[in-house]
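Q: Please design a sequence for this.
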C-alpha cells in the first residue's frame, strides 16, 4: 500500500485545556505513523471560511449532519474575525493508509459510533437535550475523512501557512505591564526512535507550567546548526574533563606500567587530555542531535538537514524560562527529582529527553538557530502532491 499524508488539527479548546500532549501521544503511538510536520496557526476569517466550506462531503444524511456540525464549529471557533486569535496546531503524518489510521484513532464524535477509547472518546463532547438537539459540541481535533479531503485541506493550509501560521507572537493577551518571556524546548531524537507516546508525554508534563505554545515545528538539525547550538558547551566540557582525564590516565599508568605518577604530572596529563576528551564528548552530542560527528561530516553536507528528528516548541508566559526548566529537571536524569521530565523519560546525561533554554537571551539565540518561524510545512506539502 502506498504512503499517504494525513493531518490532525488540534482545536483551540484542546490547546487551551492543555490536552495537546495526550492527543499527540495517542496519534503517534496508536497509528505508528511518522510525524513529518507541525505548525501553529491563528487562522484568519478567510482561511476558516475556506476550510469550513470543504467539510461537508458525505452523501449519507446522518454522517453529513455531523460534518455540518463540525463546519459550524470551525466557523465559530477557528475564525479570527472577532479580534481574538484562536490558536490551532496542525500536525502532518506520513505512512501507509495514513488517512484511515488517523480517522480510526480520532474516532467519531457521536458516542454510539465509537469503537474503543479514541481521542474524541476522551477529549471530545457531544451532548443532546431531551428533544435530541445538540446542546454542546466539542470535537477536540479535526481530521480528514478520506484521502481526497486530506489533499485539498493540506494544500489549503499550506497556502495560508505564511500569512496565518508560524511564531504567534502577540496571539496571547497579557495584562498591561506584564513581562512575558519566550523560551525554546527541543523534544530530543531519543523520543522518536520508534512510534511511541513519549513525545506527547513530555508535552503533557510541560503543560503543568501553564505556559502557552506559540510555535511548533518538526526539525532535523544540520551538523552546522548543532555545532552552533551547542558551541558554548565545548569549552565547558573541555575544562570539566581535565581532572577526570588526568585521573584516568594516572590509573592506567599505575595498572599497565606499574608507574605511580605525581600529582603535578597527573595535572599536566589532564591539561593535555581534557580538551581531547571534551571535544569527543561534544562531537557525540552533535552526532546525537544531527546524526553525524562534525569530524566525519563532508564539508558539502554540513548544512543539510540531519537524519535525526526533534520537535521544537516555543512557550510564552510569565517567568517562562524558570518554569520550563523546573519541570524539565537537571541534566543528569539520575539526579532529577521525581515527576520531572528527565526523571520520567531521561536515560543518560546526553540522552535526557528534552532541552530547554537557560535564559531568555539564549532562547532568542537558539530559536534563531533552529529557525522556529521557518515554514518547512509548505514545501513538504507542495513537493508531496506535485509528485502524485
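A: Design:
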Amino acid at each position: 500500500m502506498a504512503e499517504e499524508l494525513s493531518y490532525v488539527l488540534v482545536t483551540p479548546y484542546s490547546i487551551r485545556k492543555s490536552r495537546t500532549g495526550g492527543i499527540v501521544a495517542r496519534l503517534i503511538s496508536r497509528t505508528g505513523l511518522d510525524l513529518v510536520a507541525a505548525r501553529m496557526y491563528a487562522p484568519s476569517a478567510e482561511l476558516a471560511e475556506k476550510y469550513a466550506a470543504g467539510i461537508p462531503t458525505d452523501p449519507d444524511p446522518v454522517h453529513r449532519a455531523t460534518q455540518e456540525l463540525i463546519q459550524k464549529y470551525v466557523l465559530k471557533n477557528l475564525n479570527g474575525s472577532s479580534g481574538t486569535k484562536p490558536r490551532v496546531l496542525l500536525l502532518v503524518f506520513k505512512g501507509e493508509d495514513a488517512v484511515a489510521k488517523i480517522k480510526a484513532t480520532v474516532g467519531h464524535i457521536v458516542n454510539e459510533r465509537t469503537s474503543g477509547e479514541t481521542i474524541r472518546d476522551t477529549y471530545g463532547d457531544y451532548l443532546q437535550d431531551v428533544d435530541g438537539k445538540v446542546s454542546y459540541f466539542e470535537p477536540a481535533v479535526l481530521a480528514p475523512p478520506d484521502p481526497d479531503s486530506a489533499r485539498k485541506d493540506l494544500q489549503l493550509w499550506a497556502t495560508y501557512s505564511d500569512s496565518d501560521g508560524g511564531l504567534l507572537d502577540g496571539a496571547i493577551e497579557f495584562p498591561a505591564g506584564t513581562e512575558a518571556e519566550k523560551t525554546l524546548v527541543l523534544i530530543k531524537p531519543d523520543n522518536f526512535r520508534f512510534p511511541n507516546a513519549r513525545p506527547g508525554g513530555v508535552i503533557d508534563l510541560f503543560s503543568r507550567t501553564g505556559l502557552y505554545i506559540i510555535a511548533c515545528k518538526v526539525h532535523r538539525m544540520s551538523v552546522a546548526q548543532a555545532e552552533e547550538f551547542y558551541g558554548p558547551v565545548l569549552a565547558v566540557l573541555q575544562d570539566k574533563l581535565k581532572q577526570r582525564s588526568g585521573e584516568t590516565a594516572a590509573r592506567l599508568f599505575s595498572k599497565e606500567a606499574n608507574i605511580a605518577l605525581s600529582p603535578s604530572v597527573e595535572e599536566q596529563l589532564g591539561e593535555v587530555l581534557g580538551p581531547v576528551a571534551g571535544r569527543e564528548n561534544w562531537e557525540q552530542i552533535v552526532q546525537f542531535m544531527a546524526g553525524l560527528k562534525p569530524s566525519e561530516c563532508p564539508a558539502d553536507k554540513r548544512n543539510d538537514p540531519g537524519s535525526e528528528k526533534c520537535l521544537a516548541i516555543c512557550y510564552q508566559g510569565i517567568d517562562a524560562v524558570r518554569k520550563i526548566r523546573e519541570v524539565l529537571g537537571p541534566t543528569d536524569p539520575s539526579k532529577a527529582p521525581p515527576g520531572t521530565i528527565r526523571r520520567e523519560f531521561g536515560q543518560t546525561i546526553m540522552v535526557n529527553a528534552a532541552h530547554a533554554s537557560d535564559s531568555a537571551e539564549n532562547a532568542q539565540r537558539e530559536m534563531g538557530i533552529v529557525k522556529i518561524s521557518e515554514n518547512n510545512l509548505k514545501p513538504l506539502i507542495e513537493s508531496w502532491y506535485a509528485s502524485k
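Q: Thanks. Anything notable?
A: The beta strands are 3-10, 34-41, 88-96, 125-128, 134-138, 141-142, 180-187, 212-219, 310-318, 354-356. Residues 194 and 302 are 26 Å apart (CA to CA).
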